Amino acid sequence: MLELRPNCECCDRDLPPAAAAMICSFECTFCPDCASSVFGGVCPNCGGGLTARPVRPAGKLAANPPSARRVVSNDPSCLDRRGMLAAGA
Length: 89
Prior knowledge:
The protein is of the alpha+beta class. The protein has a domain at 1-44. 20% of the residues lie in helices and 7% in strands. The protein has a 3-stranded antiparallel sheet with strand order 2-1-3. A hairpin with a 5-residue loop joins strand 1 (22-23) and strand 2.
């Protein structure tokens, strides 16, 4: 079962279970903007392709909740993006 991580690993934007998100086969998770504009559709961690994360049906979330563990990248491009978001850019 997918972990459904709660945030973009690059910009740290919240990604609720029904939000559009991109994942690789190792479940690295990114918002669509970071996946395309920062990484060009390729996972920076494993080099695999990023694809749309499936949406877990709302009725299944209670018994199969999403992860609460936030993962963030130390990639320099991501540090810059998080700094821009914090500054309101």
